[in-house]
Design a protein that fits this description.
By secondary structure, the chain is an alpha+beta fold. It has 13 helices and ten strands. A four-stranded antiparallel sheet has the order 6-5-7-8. It has a two-stranded antiparallel sheet with strand order 1-2. The longest helix is centred in the last third of the chain and has 20 residues, at 263-282.
Length: 379
């Protein structure tokens, strides 16, 4: 009798424990059961038990179905942290259930050579317009509000940049118009219906943006948003603030801003340097012919050439590395050129300065290689 009671108690505990590892959500009026095993086997095998459990509770609290692509758990490697991503369609679905929802408009923001902004509806742009893409906008209308909720996002803030200095898979150039539009629309929906996904975001995270304007990427209320800036740098693989200061040529990032430059400018420069350094490390062997030597009378250029020559020799830069760099700037330069007293005719002061920046960054990467560094939390 006692044994039967103990077995019954154990069975009840097992059932209760099993219940803790599954949740039920409603999808198109039908209950859908999502289990711990489903997540581990079908959704995200790399997720830890804790990450899986948190994702299950998120699905339950937001009533989202991962099998219908409403919510995702993404983890690229065991070293990474799992990321929960809610599909824009899920925000739209939730909004449409609210009787006050009255539609939306959304599109991309382009800036021409004169600095004029164009607010275009949709996500279509021509191939030659990609360099003009600077952000996206959205308006969400509510029947109980006189004015729509407007949101605009800055491309520099939104585009995810990997440790190679290039946009990540989902943010490749061809996908950026659509991804930026989705980001702006999602934020506008959250601002319009904050109760729908309470806890997912705080409305305080968003900058109030006057309609018809583009917000700066790393400013809020006119002040730099340092946390957002350093988070972006960590995504790019910059984990030591001294390295960042060296590349920017400043004692601190605050000095960079005080000199009249923006945090967007800093991100652009650091991404370009990271891309150059990555290219230096990964290039196959190759050779090219050098340009003929010609007399140059520019003293500043000659001085810069001597500095670069010294750096190339000390860092033992290879022919392959130079091929990649020269191809990027559409110039011809080979190792043999650095034995000459003057640079090839295709080398200008601007190009020479860029090469020196790349060499400085490469030198820093060698110095920091193998060390974890300190995570930057301030400038």
């Amino acid at each position: 009798m006692i044994e039967e009671k103990e077995k019954s108690t154990a069975l009840t505990k097992n059932k209760a424990k099993q219940k803790e590892k599954e949740v039920v959500v409603q999808y198109r009026g039908e209950p859908v059961t999502i289990t711990f095993g489903d997540i581990k086997q079908l959704i995200c095998p790399l997720a830890t038990e804790q990450e899986t459990a948190i994702f299950l509770r998120t699905c339950q609290s937001l009533n989202l179905n991962p099998f219908a692509s409403e919510i995702y758990l993404i983890k690229y490697s065991e070293r990474d942290k799992a990321a929960t991503v809610i599909a824009i369609d899920a925000y739209l679905k939730a909004s449409e259930t609210n009787p006050e929802y009255n539609g939306h408009e959304a599109g991309v923001i382009l800036k021409d050579s004169a600095g004029k902004l164009e607010f275009r509806e949709g996500a279509f742009i021509l191939d030659e317009e990609y360099s003009n893409l600077v952000g996206a906008w959205a308006r969400v209308f509510r029947r109980d509000r006189e004015h729509p909720f407007y949101m605009a996002v800055n491309k520099t803030e939104c585009v995810k940049i990997g440790r190679d200095g290039q946009p990540t898979q989902f943010w490749q150039k061809s996908k950026q118009p659509l991804m930026l539009r989705k980001t702006a629309l999602k934020r506008a929906l959250l601002e319009s219906f904050p109760a729908l996904f309470s806890g997912a975001y705080s409305t305080a995270e968003f900058e109030e943006v006057p309609e018809g304007t583009l917000p700066p990427a790393f400013k809020k209320a006119g002040e730099p948003t340092w946390d957002k800036f350093w988070t972006k740098l960590r995504e790019m693989g910059y984990t030591n603030k001294e390295e960042v200061h060296t590349i920017l040529g400043m004692a601190s990032v605050k000095d960079w801003v005080d000199s009249g430059k923006t945090l967007e400018d800093a991100i652009t420069k650091l991404a370009n340097i990271k891309a150059n350094v990555e290219a230096f490390d990964q290039l196959p062997s190759a050779t090219i012919e050098s340009e003929p030597e010609i007399p140059i009378m520019d003293d500043k250029l000659l001085q810069g050439w001597e500095i670069v020559k010294d750096s190339v020799k000390k860092l033992k830069i290879s022919e392959a590395q130079l091929v990649k760099w020269s191809g990027h700037y559409k110039v011809q330069v080979a190792l043999a050129d650095f034995d000459k007293s003057v640079p090839p005719k295709s080398i200008t002061s601007e190009i020479l300065s860029s090469l020196q920046d790349s060499l400085n960054a490469y030198k820093e990467s060698l110095a920091y290689k193998g060390g974890k560094g300190n995570e930057p939390h301030e400038y």
